[in-house]
Amino acid sequence: MSRSLGRVAAGDTGREQRSPGEEDFRSYYGRRVLKEPVWEWLVPAYLFAGGLSAACAELAAGADLTRRPRLRKAARLGALGGLATSMYFLIADLGRPERFHHMLRVAKPSSPMSVGTWILVAYGPGVGVAAAAELLPARLRRRWPGKLIGALARPAGLASAAVAPGVASYTAVLLSHTAVPAWNEARDRLPFVFTGSAAAAGGGFGMVCTPVDEAEPARKLAAVGAVTELVTSRQLDERLGVVSEAYRTGKAHRLRQWSEYLTAGGALGSLLAGRSRAAAVTSGLALLAGSALQRFGIFEAGVQSTKDPKYVVVPQRRRVDRGEQA
């Protein structure tokens, strides 16, 4: 954008439009530079469900190796349920189910969408086999098909757990590779927020669905994930320059503030729940709600950041001033 076109009238006075605290911000008559995303609530719901599934897969693998059958069963079923729910939201947002199939025609390493699609393809079958082993009736487990599924359950679960970190974080990479300022400027931090949020949700799910005598790994995962989410989420409010305003104001701020309250409360509860089943369930639900609100808050911040041209223009000018390639 040239400097002559960058000048905007404040009313009809011909003066440049400036806001307090901004460094030499100018836009063309205050008009938007970007169109806001056309995505609806299905997308943040998809982000949450996919992260929950990935964390449950990790939790299930750990429970399997440490011989915690009830936690293993709950986590395996949670991984399958989260995956199925996320795929439903994704396909519903695409509008036509065959569009997901069409993405399998090519593998494009430079495209986060293509890489993410293949990550889901590698992740899904193992989750399905591990969950099927938990759902088989006892009489079928002694027959040939049931024995085969039972034998494949552990390697399938471990294989899915190996891919799960990619499932939890690729959506953050997908968002940050768009032109939306609040997502693009947070590209170095967003994967950590998403991964921590997913771990908190998975731990919370394990706390809700598992008796307290087997839920210790879930409580630990929840605490670590919650701390990671809280620390890295706060960086979005403080270290993105002018773009941080999109996270600190409006609906995005309210959603993320409630997310912070619930996540912090759930993390504290996971450490203090002890043998109390009621405290564990309450803390787990708080962690799940906090993780969901985090995704919706980040989504809302991205939408809002496209409505004000300063979130596009100011970072671009700073990159030019530093000699960076736009």
Automatic annotation (TrEMBL):
Residues 1-22 are annotated as: Disordered. Coiled coil: none annotated. It comes from the Bacteria. It is found in: Cell membrane. InterPro entries: Electron_transfer_protein, NrfD-like. Keywords: Cell membrane, Membrane, Transmembrane, Transmembrane helix. The gene is nrfD. The chain crosses the membrane at residues 74-95, 115-136. It holds the Pfam family NrfD. Belongs to the NrfD family. It comes from Prauserella alba. This is Polysulfide reductase NrfD. It is a multi-pass membrane protein. Residues 13-22 have a biased composition (Basic and acidic residues).
